[in-house]
Structures are given as structure tokens and as C-alpha cells.
Amino acid sequence: MPDTPSIPRRSILTGASAAFTTSLFTGRVRGANDRIAVGFIGLGAMGSGNLSYAMQVPEAQPVAVCDIYGPHLERAVSAAAKKGVQVKAVTDFRDIIADKSIDAICVSTPDHWHAYMTVEGCKAGKDVYVEKPACTYINEGKKMVQAARKYDRVVQAGTMQRSGGYFKKAAELVKSGILGEITFCHAFQTGLTKEAGFGDPGDTTPPADLNWDMWLGPAPKVPFNPNRWGVKTTTFPTFRYFWDYAGGAMTDWGVHLIDPLHQCFDEVMPLSVSAMGEKFYVKDNVQTPDTMLATFRYPKFLSSYESRTCNPLPMFGTTQGAATTIHGTEASLMVNRSGCWLIPNNPSKMEPQTWEKDKEMSQMNVPHWRNFMECIKSRKRPTSDIETCVRSSATCILANLSMRHKTWLDWDEKEWTVKQDAVKPALVEKYRAPWKLVV
């Protein structure tokens, strides 16, 4: 890709500085030996993982945990205690945000809470680690970036692959030009779901130790349904398959699979998006498709994404069920959490190269947390600065909107919206009173 320059892009908030100097509101300038007090909001599968990763980073000091489901809260307190860490347990996230002794928060809630808690955390002078996808509405993402810049906060998104060695190697190879001219990329995710899916449980009474109204928060008020809540013992929660709270596989796996492209190509957004999807096979009460295909037109290449949850056949003759591939005139590249593979078009001119089964390169989560802590002290932008995740999340949201509105969408980078007037309202958050997203 020798003739492809870095594509200039307009920051969502023009003129934002790239480095900060002090911790806002507290007035403290951090020393090298200071520990950073962290409060954790949401202690389900991802939140429990983040608590564990943070406890492996000496600079991080977990001091508080918050969840509106009693068993999750108890589990978090117990997990911390086993590591010799004593944490305060609360059931209202606002208690953590208001606590001036807490330096940073980790938001691992269902997706529809990410934006609100991130913005409120920034306004309270907290640095923030927020899980992906960054947002469920594109306008939410814009406000998250604005809040991070306005209040000079370090906001690290949970796209932890950027801290992994395989993904760093992929970006290095693409930017070196070794692949030649790149015109096509592909991201895929495969699996085999049972026809019954997650079942079709009826609406019922929420568990006694769950605050269902607070769980819903800014989302529409609806009766409790086990799949809408989605806490499972053997799988990740199923809330992600309901439009009120998330975006299905497209914003779940899709963000992880498309984000490497943005990492390799300097955070460029697609110029246009077209997508189709449907529930062809699965017979449950979740709303998002079991099969989806999206096409993204970037300035210098096309990219496709497929979510194939009714057939597990891997791609490219490998055993990899999910990966991102980049195809050039000289070679192709495939990357995922298991490795990075350079596949030359002409093996007589270029040696194939493989990076896999490398313990150091496979590490992602702990290095990502370490980077977050380092940037809180240095006030530099973190590896997954919130704007990078907002761009990757917005790309996936656009695909869902194209599918649901049955129309091609053109992206307006300057205004951070789509050019199709009929779809523009769908980019703006619709919060249930009394919740309001104000930067």
C-alpha cells in the first residue's frame, strides 16, 4: 500500500488537545508511585473480568463495586477479598460517580448505559474505562467524545485487542506496505446456534434482588423478560440481542472485527454502508438477526462483514471461526486473538509468516488496563481512546440502521450524520424520563 497516505480526519470535537496536565477538580498532579482508586459499575461477565484484570495491575486500586443485581455484587466483593482487596459495595452507580475519593470508573453495564455513565463520569472529574460498543446511538458516541475533551478526561474503551501483540503486528504490516495496494477487506464470525436459540420465555416478575427499573434506566419501560435481562450461567447475557439495549452480533462481535481495520487505516470511517440480515433459522424471542451481511465503502477499499451463526465452517482453510482479513496485490493478512498470518500471493517472491501461540503477543486485557493506568498518570490519550471506539461502534450501528431501514446509507463526516434525511432521527438517543444525556 505504498501510495496510500494516512487519511486525514476531522475530530468529533475540533481543536481538542492531545495531552492533559492535571486531574480536573482534584487539582492533583499524579506521581509515579500513586495508586489510582477505581470504582467498578456493572459486575456481570465483562465487569467481573475487568475487576480481575485491574487487580493484576499494581497501579490500580479497586475501592468500590456497584451492581443492581445482588448475586453479582456479592460475587465481586468475594472475588476482591480473595485477592486481599476490600471494596465498598453499592447498588446505585451515582454513589460511585459522586465519591470524590474515586479517581476512575469502569463501566461494564449493558450497552444502553455506556454513554450516560461515561458522560456523567467525565463531568464528575473521573477518568473512564468503558466497555464496547461505546454507544447504542451515534449521537451518544459524539457526546462521549465531547465530554472526554471538554472535561480533559482519559477515556479508554474496551477494544482491548488494540493492546494485543497480534493486532499490533497486523497494523505494522499493513502500514509497512508489504501487502501492496489494498482494495478489499473482510471480517467474519461463524457459529452454530440451536434452532430453539435462547427460548421464548414469557414476561414475568423480576428476581427479588434485581432492580429492574434501574436496569432499564433510559431504555423504554417494559415488563421483565428473562431474555431481555439475559443473565445466563453458561453464555454471555442475551440483552445484546434486543434493540432497546444493544445491536446484536453486529455491535457485539462486529466492533471487535471491524476495529482492527480502523487501527490499520488510521481510524477512517466508511463513506457508505449497505447491509441485510434476518432471523432465518432461530426460533426464540430475541430481535436481532441470526444471519447478516454488510458492505462498507471506505475511501480506498471495500470491506464486508458476515455474521453466520447457523453454520460454523471456518474461513480460508483454517480453524478460525472469527477473524479480520486484509487483501492486497502482494499478499493477504488474517488476524484474530489466536494469531496473525501473512499469506503472500506469490510464495516464490515472499515467505509466508505466522505469529501464533505466543504467550506475550496473546495478552490483551491486562496490558490494556496497564495502558489505562499509565495514561491516567501521563494524561496522554490511551490506546483505545474513546473516539476510536466511537468510530468503530458507529460503523456497526450504521450497518444495523441500513438493514433495519432497508436503505443504503452515506456518511457525512463533517456533520457526523448520514445524508439520508429519513434515517437521521434514528441516530439520536431517545431516553426515558428523567434520564437526559447532557455534556
From TrEMBL:
<dbReference type="InterPro" id="IPR000683">
    <property type="entry name" value="Gfo/Idh/MocA-like_OxRdtase_N"/>
</dbReference>
<feature type="domain" description="Gfo/Idh/MocA-like oxidoreductase bacterial type C-terminal">
    <location>
        <begin position="204"/>
        <end position="436"/>
    </location>
</feature>
<dbReference type="InterPro" id="IPR036291">
    <property type="entry name" value="NAD(P)-bd_dom_sf"/>
</dbReference>
<dbReference type="GO" id="GO:0000166">
    <property type="term" value="F:nucleotide binding"/>
</dbReference>
<feature type="domain" description="Gfo/Idh/MocA-like oxidoreductase N-terminal">
    <location>
        <begin position="37"/>
        <end position="158"/>
    </location>
</feature>
<dbReference type="Pfam" id="PF01408">
    <property type="entry name" value="GFO_IDH_MocA"/>
</dbReference>
<protein>
    <submittedName>
        <fullName>Gfo/Idh/MocA family oxidoreductase</fullName>
    </submittedName>
</protein>
<dbReference type="Pfam" id="PF19051">
    <property type="entry name" value="GFO_IDH_MocA_C2"/>
</dbReference>
<dbReference type="InterPro" id="IPR043906">
    <property type="entry name" value="Gfo/Idh/MocA_OxRdtase_bact_C"/>
</dbReference>
<dbReference type="InterPro" id="IPR050463">
    <property type="entry name" value="Gfo/Idh/MocA_oxidrdct_glycsds"/>
</dbReference>
